[in-house]
């Protein structure tokens, strides 16, 4: 079932978008029947092939489809690029270990940069602030393929640089700056026990962290508990949530600082999906640092792994709610998933 579904998806996207949706709708009519309004209308009966085809935009997401959250409709890649053109800050969220996501991030960075001849900086969650000097030097001297080894990427714990290199290649092709956005590793662990006081004075002043809002704290606490298989003591959750809040602030500050350079036109952010959510994460801090920003200045694209086909498939808004809210993104770009083992099987915290 899974293989056949993905084969259909690949074939579908060789066609035009309208034919694609029509073909997908026909499949849905047989595998995922939907009672349409036409079937309920009075008057002459409709042929079954017409009566049972649902609205294409109501179809469950499939790999390759892009959904415009504001318009509540599927769009082509070029349509998304047109909508994003001129946006000051473009945040592209990923699942770290899915190489398809990094390919799509590179595709979007390249397309937007070429369309506008713009020079947004590329801010990375995967590089830490204390690596900026080394990153600047390496970016001037080595190829994108060699950047990972030059930056000791293999010791960082992130997935293979081979997966991320296409993003760097897109940046190099368009003359974009590379910016290390994450907190230094040597402050993360002390923050768990010491809180904000563990931040170096200069960085603390730059981030200007306010008290963690109760609504954000509640969501972070729940997500961190689930992310650690509910094995973390509840007493530790607020400390971990504060670190998450500070990391989001660090990424946002790196974006606004880069934008302040007269030779740079805003910033891309390459980060995990949870960091880019519009209602709670990095955009929250972008608006703190630049109160003049409007909704047109920030755009969020989240790459999402579509569920395997089956009964009772989730809709687009269901995927958004899995990440906490229907207001997390401007576009959701669906991809294949990857086979993974259960991360909770071998997890032992504090043992």
Task: Give the integer mean of the pLDDT values.
Answer: 87
Shape: globular
Low-confidence stretches: 1-43
- Characterize the main sheet: 8 strands, mixed
Characterization of this structure:
- The radius of gyration is 22 Å and the shape is globular.
- It has 2 domains: about 60 residues, no CATH class; about 280 residues, Rossmann fold (3-Layer(aba) Sandwich).
- It has an 8-stranded mixed sheet with strand order 2-1-8-7-3-6-4-5, with helices on both faces.
- Helices cover about 45% and strands about 15% of the residues.
- α8 crosses α9.
- β7, α16 and β8 form a beta-alpha-beta unit.
- It is an alpha/beta fold and about 350 residues long.
- The two termini are about 40 Å apart.
- The N terminus is likely disordered.
Task: Describe the structure using short key phrases.
351 residues, alpha/beta, 2 domains, eight-stranded mixed β-sheet
Please give a quick description of this structure.
With 351 residues, the chain is an alpha/beta fold. The protein has 16 helices and 8 strands. It has 2 domains: 1-59, no CATH class; 61-335, Rossmann fold (3-Layer(aba) Sandwich), CATH 3.40.50.
């Amino acid at each position: 079932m899974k293989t056949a579904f993905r084969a259909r998806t690949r074939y579908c996207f060789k066609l035009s978008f309208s034919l694609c949706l029509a073909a997908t709708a026909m499949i849905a009519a047989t595998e995922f029947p939907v009672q349409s309004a036409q079937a309920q209308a009075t008057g002459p009966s409709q042929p079954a092939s017409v009566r049972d085809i649902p609205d294409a935009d109501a179809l469950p997401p499939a790999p390759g489809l892009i959904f415009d959250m504001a318009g509540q409709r599927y769009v082509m890649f070029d349509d998304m690029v047109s909508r994003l053109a001129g946006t000051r800050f473009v945040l592209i969220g990923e699942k770290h270990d899915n190489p398809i996501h990094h390919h799509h991030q590179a595709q979007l960075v390249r397309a937007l940069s070429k369309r506008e001849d713009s020079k947004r900086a590329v801010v990375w969650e995967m590089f830490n602030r204390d690596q900026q000097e080394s990153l600047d030097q390496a970016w001037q001297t080595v190829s994108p393929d060699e950047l990972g080894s030059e930056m000791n990427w293999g010791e960082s714990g992130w997935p293979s640089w081979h997966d991320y290199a296409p993003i760097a290649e897109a940046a190099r092709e368009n003359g974009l700056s590379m910016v290390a956005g994450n907190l230094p590793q040597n402050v993360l662990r002390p923050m768990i026990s010491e809180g904000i006081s563990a931040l170096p004075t200069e960085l603390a002043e730059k981030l200007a962290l306010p008290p963690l809002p109760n609504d954000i704290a509640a969501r972070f606490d729940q997500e961190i508990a689930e992310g650690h298989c509910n094995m973390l003591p509840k007493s530790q959750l607020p400390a971990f949530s504060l670190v998450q809040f500070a990391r989001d602030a660090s990424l946002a500050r790196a974006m606004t600082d880069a934008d302040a350079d007269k030779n740079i036109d805003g910033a891309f952010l390459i980060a995990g999906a949870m960091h880019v959510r519009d209602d709670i994460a990095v955009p929250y801090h972008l608006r703190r640092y630049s109160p003049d920003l409007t909704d047109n200045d920030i755009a969020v694209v989240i790459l999402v792994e579509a569920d395997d086909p089956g009964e009772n498939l989730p809709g687009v808004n269901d995927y958004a709610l899995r990440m906490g809210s229907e207001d997390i993104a401007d576009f959701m770009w669906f991809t294949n998933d990857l086979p993974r083992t259960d991360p909770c099987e071998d997890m032992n915290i504090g043992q």
